[in-house]
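Margin note: ligand = phenylalanine.
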Amino acid sequence: MVQKLDEIFNDFKSKIESLDKAADVLSLKATVIGKKGSLAEILKSLKDATPEERKEIGPKSNQIKADIEKMVVAKLQQIEKDEIDKKLAENTIDFSLTDSIMDKGLQAAGLHPVTQIQQEIEDIFISMGFDVLDGPHIEDDFHNFEALNIPETHPARDMQDTFWFKDMKHLLRTHTSTIQVRGMESRKPPFKFVGPGKVFRCERTDATHEMCFHQLEGMMVGKDITVGNLIYFMKTLLREIFQKDMEVRLRPGYFPFVEPGFELDIRWKKPGKGESKHSGWLELLPCGMVHPNVLKAGGIDPEKYNGFAFGLGLDRLVMVKYMIEDIRHLHSGDLRFNKQFKMY
Ligand code: PHE
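Resulting structure:
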């Protein structure tokens, strides 16, 4: 009988080794130490054993039971670990993705030229101490018009054809000047920030008009800010973008949220042959001194503080920089176009 016990145990040991599923391990365990298992069978026939045998078999079968239980626990842990290792091995991430894509003859993506110029301009302004703010595409009447000194009956609302939502209270922002209002609401003067993003107008598209384009708003508010400060920041920006000093001029321009308002032009000459229709003054960005009503709407006392604001058209800047003749190329998704602006 003692020998039988050893056989059972050895048999169990060799069988468990080859198993790799938890369910199989548990059923093997049941066949040995379960209620109807082989160990129970032996204990049942204990009554036929001699007293010496009984003395030996009792502790031995207990020992075997304990050993089997330990082995089962260890085996189950091992199986769980193996499964995790297997899953991890299947999910490995190929960090050399760029290379492997190239090996397969595919092209890695680059940033769109508008994104590139936006990031470049953000960096220039960050280096001059400006914050970079964001704002929602879906706006309300207050942030897009009312707070910018454009009340409901103001004819200037017609300057920007607007996509209204059915409730006639919400709209797709027509300009990033909404970020001026949100910026004023969230900070106290003095401050300076830029706010880039998409803007939407209900326009017929042509070579110079798109329904969705990109602007970068800028605002500086403090004590005794002058047009001189505005020109300084604009010239610094243009020098960084074009990598040379740019000649600028201000013409009067009308926007309800600035007073006085200007159009800033740059002296522009198409590289290559002499004077052409592409040479001369090029209208680049509208700007001006923030209207007192706008400061008031943003919770700022116009008796104590003043400031400037500007709205740079990013698509236009990309077109000037790379001499692109049609704004629709920018949204065409045409890879032949996009590939020309890769940054590596
Ligand atoms: N928000 C104006 C537009 O989109 C541009 C602008 C911004 C003008 C800031 C003056 C000051 O047309």
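The chain has two domains: 2-90, 113-341.
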